[in-house]
Specification:
Layout lengths: L13 H5 L4 H28 L6 H11 L10 H25 L5 H23 L4 H5 L4 H14 L3 H9 L1
C-alpha cells in the first residue's frame, strides 16, 4: 500500500531551521571560519605576489579599515599585519558561524556545493558591497576578478565545519 502524503509533509520551515539553537555547531562554524580565513588570506597573499603586489598587501589592506590608508605602506609593518589579520579573521569567524548555522549537514559533497555558493555570496556582499564602502579599500582599486577566487577558496575551505563539528561532538 502506498501512503498518501500532502505537500505540507515535505515542506521545511526554514525560519525554524535557521533559528534552531546549536551552540556546538556555532563553535564548529567559528573554528571553520577562522581556518577558512587563514587559507583564503594565504591564497590572497600568493595571488598578490604573483600579480606584482607586495606579499603582505591583502593583510594590510584589511587593516586600512581601522588604521587608515597608511596601513598599506610598503614594508612588513607588524601593526598593520596584525591589525589586518584580526579584522579579516573576525569577519571570517562571523561568516563561518553563519555558514555553519545555515549548512546543517556534514556531507562533504553538500558542504562543498554550499561553500561555492557561500564564496560567491561573500564575493558579492562582503567584497563588492561591504568592504568597498571603506574608502581606503575602494581607493586601492583591487580587481573584483582577483577577489573572486579568494572568496571561492574561503567558501570551499568552510567545508572544514564538518571536521570541527565531528571533533567537538565526540
Amino acid at each position: 500500500m502506498h501512503a498518501s502524503h500532502s505537500q505540507d509533509d515535505f515542506d521545511m520551515n526554514l525560519i525554524e531551521t535557521f533559528l534552531r539553537r546549536d551552540p556546538t555547531r556555532w563553535i564548529a562554524g567559528a573554528l571553520a571560519g577562522a581556518f577558512a580565513g587563514l587559507i583564503a588570506l594565504v591564497f590572497a597573499m600568493l595571488v598578490a605576489a604573483v600579480g606584482g603586489q607586495e606579499f603582505w598587501f591583502p593583510v594590510k589592506l584589511m587593516a586600512t579599515i581601522v588604521l587608515g590608508p597608511e596601513a598599506t605602506y610598503l614594508g612588513a609593518h607588524f601593526g598593520a599585519i596584525l591589525g589586518g589579520l584580526l579584522v579579516f579573521e573576525v569577519l571570517s569567524v562571523i561568516f563561518g558561524v553563519l555558514y555553519a548555522n545555515f549548512a546543517r549537514t556534514n556531507s562533504l559533497q553538500a558542504l562543498l556545493l554550499i561553500g561555492l555558493v557561500w564564496g560567491t555570496f561573500s564575493w558579492i556582499f562582503l567584497w563588492n558591497l561591504f568592504l568597498q564602502s571603506f574608502r581606503p579599500i575602494l581607493a586601492a582599486e583591487v580587481s573584483s576578478a582577483a577577489a573572486f577566487p579568494v572568496c571561492l577558496v574561503f567558501g570551499v575551505a568552510l567545508t572544514s565545519v564538518a571536521f570541527f563539528d565531528r571533533v567537538i561532538r565526540r
